[in-house]
């Protein structure tokens, strides 16, 4: 693997985020869901206007990881009101760590997680939290390995399908 660089995304990067989001979400979840449900989710969740608005939100931060000039994954973290659920000022939510399947198992996800941890520490957050699909065992095990514990569950809607996400947290103090 060549040099890996993580860059903070700006609104000009909306298309890179959109394409990475669609590709990595599809790679991760298409085999477990109907094509119709996946396509509906991708169209809604990664619509140009939605991605641009997320990038403009001052309580959200995106980071793109590149190998050479190729974007291979990204991180989205939320604080304050941008958090999808808890909206606790003392926490930082990891909403997305997505890495292309071609680069999984090469520590790219760990680099993105380390970036989220660095942000949480800089912002003096008391804990990190996230939601992860209970059937995505690779991701669940990744977060457990990094010190996260399950504290609740919530429903994630993929089209008409209700799926259970484990809510996990890592105390930083």
Automatic annotation (TrEMBL):
Organism of derivation: Chryseobacterium arachidis
Keywords linked to the UniProt accession: Acyltransferase, Transferase
Molecular function GO labels: acyltransferase activity, transferring groups other than amino-acyl groups
PROSITE patterns: GNAT
Protein name in UniProt: Spermine/spermidine N-acetyltransferase
Residue ranges constituting the N-acetyltransferase domain according to the UniProt record: 4-173
